[in-house]
Amino acid sequence: MTTAAPLGNNTLSPTNVTTKSQEEILYQSSGAIVAAIVVGLIIIFTVVLLMLKTYNRHMRAKRELEPTSTKAKTPPTFGQNSSNANQPTTVTIVPVDIHMQNR
What we know:
By secondary structure, the protein is mainly alpha-helical. The protein has 2 helices and no strands. The protein has helices at 22-65, 83-86. Residues 62-103 are annotated as: Disordered. This is Non-compact myelin associated protein. One of its GO terms (molecular function) is structural constituent of myelin sheath. Keywords: Membrane, Transmembrane, Transmembrane helix. InterPro entries: NCMAP.
């Protein structure tokens, strides 16, 4: 039968313990603060995006469920003569020859 020998002193000696300077602690805490701010901004943008998406969906459904107007749209009249309002306005485009004479 064998027995294990005791390992001896289990306490850590001061040479094995690494002490962090105050500057290192500040760097680590500032990194954690920046990470928290970034995560917070991502969460805020996600919430705003979801709100806009829901609003857009709601407004689209509202527009699609609205009854369409049964009135026929009439073109605006450009004078007091109502007989001209019944005739459709036509636009005639005439091509122009732009060639210049050589002198």
